[in-house]
Specification:
Number of domains: 2
Number of helices: 6
Shape: globular
Helix content: 25-40%
Bound molecules: thymidine-5'-phosphate
Amino acid sequence: MSRRKQIYEGKAKILYEGPEPGTLVQYFKDDATAFNAKKKGVITGKGVLNNRISEYLMMRLEEVGVPTHFVRRLNMREQLVREVEIVPIEVVVRNVAAGSFSQRYGVPEGQALPRSIVEYYYKNDELGDPMVAEEHITAFGWASTQDLDDIMALSLRINDFLTGLFLGVGLKLIDFKLEFGRHWNEHDEMRIVLADEISPDTSRLWDVKTNEKMDKDRFRRDLGNVEEAYREVARRLGIFPEGGPQDLKGPKTMQ
Ligand code: TMP
């Protein structure tokens, strides 16, 4: 593993050169950060769980026609992905007020929004990922109007699909963050694909009945039982990293 060329190291993942041209290996760490890395910690087992959860969600999304960078899982902590040019924008989709939205606009956490709201943030740690408008994105050349149309359409489809999927296992999808990339096929045609990860690190998931937080807010807000919450999300989705006879194939529907 150490002989593999490291392409990029982020806060929660490392990207290595892949086995074939045009591929990368995405390695999931247990490291956790919050508030632009002002808070740091380790959530034991998080990388293994996020690898499985993100694999599961990307595969379900592919099945309904959402193009993603995901190719296949390689092992407990690694997945093979297509090499893409990352659009330097974090797309946040919100269904219920929480987190920075509640703070910025003075809306109580937990208040349902009249419609889903899509926000854009410029991916830049030094600047603290400032919120930006479509105007900034096109003026600075981070993405074209066409790219943004595709990104918006995909984000709303992903939101509709994941909202239903999570509701089916007793979880409310409050909000989540997506990243997209440009992928060129063998004919040099470009298309926008979903990249990065979707996991409890990058989303807010609340239990339908109790509103208990089942995501990274447990780490951000020192609520405890962080790994247990991630494990419960995986369990409800029918994923058991341990494998074995209890390994379920599909999501377990909650009554
Ligand atoms: P926020 O309320 O802090 O803006 O977060 C909105 C959603 O985006 C939440 O589900 C967590 C996710 N998120 C990330 O994945 N990475 C980040 O750097 C931030 C700030 C939020």
